[in-house]
């Protein structure tokens, strides 16, 4: 074999080698690009997904807090404050009922006993109503007629000490003036009482009357 013949395959081989090498290099670069690209691209992608998940989590937490705050605000505005207002209104109604009933209970005149006692009883309920009815019929009426007893009561101070949907307790400070045949100039007395109330048919009625 001549040197020329030997050189040709060598050149071809060399050319092929170069081409292969170049292809290999290109292929390696391409292969490297392909092999490295998913890893390089995957890492930022994972970071992005992680950040997205964290951001979504933060957004959800923030949204939950906002919703919670909104619900709390709604409950305060539409329920708690309304309940406060209802309780305040109920307390005022109970207070007035206690004052009105007590004045009727302790005020009477010998000329209008039946009317006065009937008015008083319309503000009472339960066992106390039964007690008052029995007491006025058996003791107060005979004494008031015989001695011409007249009493006038006034509430000077009052406060609700406890209130529930259907019950309340009110503390009253009372001034009472009593006149009679034996004492026409009158006798003055100051006292305090704890008035128990029960709600009956949407009305506050006196169910207990205890001196304190």
Automatic annotation (TrEMBL):
<protein>
    <recommendedName>
        <fullName>Twin-arginine translocation pathway signal</fullName>
    </recommendedName>
</protein>
<dbReference type="GO" id="GO:0016020">
    <property type="term" value="C:membrane"/>
</dbReference>
<keyword id="KW-0472">Membrane</keyword>
<feature type="transmembrane region" description="Helical">
    <location>
        <begin position="56"/>
        <end position="77"/>
    </location>
</feature>
<feature type="compositionally biased region" description="Basic and acidic residues">
    <location>
        <begin position="1"/>
        <end position="16"/>
    </location>
</feature>
<feature type="compositionally biased region" description="Acidic residues">
    <location>
        <begin position="25"/>
        <end position="42"/>
    </location>
</feature>
<keyword id="KW-1133">Transmembrane helix</keyword>
<feature type="region of interest" description="Disordered">
    <location>
        <begin position="1"/>
        <end position="48"/>
    </location>
</feature>
<keyword id="KW-0812">Transmembrane</keyword>
């Amino acid at each position: 074999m001549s040197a020329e013949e030997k050189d040709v395959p060598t050149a071809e081989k060399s050319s092929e080698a170069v081409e292969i090498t170049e292809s290999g290099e290109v292929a390696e670069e391409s292969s490297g690009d392909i092999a490295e690209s998913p890893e390089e691209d995957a890492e930022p992608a994972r970071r992005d997904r992680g950040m997205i998940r964290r951001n979504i989590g933060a957004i959800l937490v923030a949204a939950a807090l906002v919703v919670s705050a909104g619900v709390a605000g709604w409950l305060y505005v539409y329920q708690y404050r309304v309940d406060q207002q209802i309780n305040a209104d109920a307390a005022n109604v109970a207070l007035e009922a206690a004052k009105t009933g007590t004045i009727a209970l302790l005020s009477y005149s010998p000329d209008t006993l039946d009317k006065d006692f009937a008015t008083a009883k319309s503000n009472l309920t339960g066992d106390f109503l039964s007690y008052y009815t029995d007491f006025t019929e058996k003791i107060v009426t005979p004494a008031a007629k015989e001695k011409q007893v007249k009493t006038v009561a006034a509430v000077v101070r009052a406060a609700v000490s406890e209130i529930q949907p259907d019950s309340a307790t009110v503390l009253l400070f009372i001034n009472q003036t009593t006149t009679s045949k034996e004492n026409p100039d009158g006798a003055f007395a100051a006292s305090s009482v704890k008035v128990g109330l029960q709600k009956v048919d949407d009305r506050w009625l006196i169910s207990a009357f205890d001196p304190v």
